[in-house]
Give the backbone structure.
Amino acid sequence: MNQTPTIAIIGGGAAGLATAIFAAQSANKSRRILLLDGAKTLGAKILVSGGGRCNVTHDAVIPEDFNGSRTVIRNILAAFPASAAVDWLASLGGELKREETGKLFPVANTARAVLSALLHRCTELGIEILLNTRVTAISASTESDPHFKIQHETGIISATRVIMATGGRSLPRSGSDGQGWEIAHKLGHTITPTYAALVPLVLADKMFHASVSGIAMDVQLQTFANNRLIDRRRGSLLWTHFGISGPVVMDASRHWVIAHESNAQARIECNLLPGENFETIEKWLVDLATTRAKSSIASAIADRMPERVAKAIISHADVDPATICGQLSRAGRRQLVASLTSLPLPILNHRGWNYAEVTAGGIPLDEINYRTMESRKIPSLYLVGEMLDCDGRIGGFNFQWAWATGHLAGKAAGAPPP
Ligand SMILES: Cc1cc2nc3c(=O)[nH]c(=O)nc-3n(C[C@H](O)[C@H](O)[C@H](O)COP(=O)(O)OP(=O)(O)OC[C@H]3O[C@@H](n4cnc5c(N)ncnc54)[C@H](O)[C@@H]3O)c2cc1C
């Protein structure tokens, strides 16, 4: 059995690669840094991220961009803020550019550039990468044997320090299917219930989504659990053939999914005229009856939203789109106002783990030391990335979490023992 002090990183996604690089940079040269991954190649999720361009971080990252224990998140981000991620990636050869939204992408405009920079640095640092090596169990070190035993499908590896970076359940074909949590649970960690997050939502066929598929528009969404408002946000919604997607839907989805899967009565209402409410829109329509008496209601509403959506929403409210503003009945007007400002979205479900970008839930942040990412349950075990109970909103925040946690764990695991 190899007795060279070994730091083993399980999982070679964004968090595992960052951990390996920081560990190798901090560690004594006699240490062996070993990265194990069950996949045939590394970086599947990096390559598909950001529409193939990899939104690596955001120019402004604050704890409020994340769901999870904010105090712990604040400390982790403070140790490796977005500016540190930008400098670090640039030092690897991955220069970034900022887009109008504040999202940062590689100048090369392709996720491959980010993955190549990370892998190149791993090679320079002599990090050993074992692919096709799916870990099935880990046993902790004991007083008589200070080595972890990492069991994989064809053998056992000993290590003095172990970092788990096995991700969550999103995009399972990338190799992240939740097995890491089972291993961590057997080691003594709690796993809070896990839910699909940043996931598109499927609507019932009675809705008009398919007829306006491909149209994006600014809306406000309000999510309720048992009639209690649990989330409110504004942003771009994309109508699709199956339902709804787009940044505002992705960000709201975790709240609906968690409520729905916790057996609460979950619903989302959509305001197609954000900033307006029932009263202001009703007044607008009443005024139109005199100011644009002869215009069709469809053309009046199409002044404020894409025409196809305007027609669809008018029909949805049981009003004939050809009705002229001066002849809209009171009942029709009130139905239309309700549909425009608080349209109930008939959500059947989320689109599934194959379409979820991230996982909500996981290992509670109070079970790690936020200065080092070391487990509070098992000394010399470290936990990083998506497997922790922290999920960011859309915009590069989840990669920022992977880099920041990997930075702390790598530096701590690579440091000589006290
Ligand atoms: C389609 C899509 C687009 C996204 N776009 C963005 C974006 O633009 N910006 C952003 O910030 N975030 C984005 N995300 C989220 C981001 O990709 C993840 O949050 C991040 O990659 C998580 O990194 P991780 O290293 O923790 O986990 P993962 O990337 O999931 O890596 C885990 C690794 O562990 C390996 N593994 C799992 N179990 C085992 C085991 N038992 N033994 C050995 N190996 C194992 C897996 O094979 C995998 O390689 C996107 C996600 C998806 C799915």
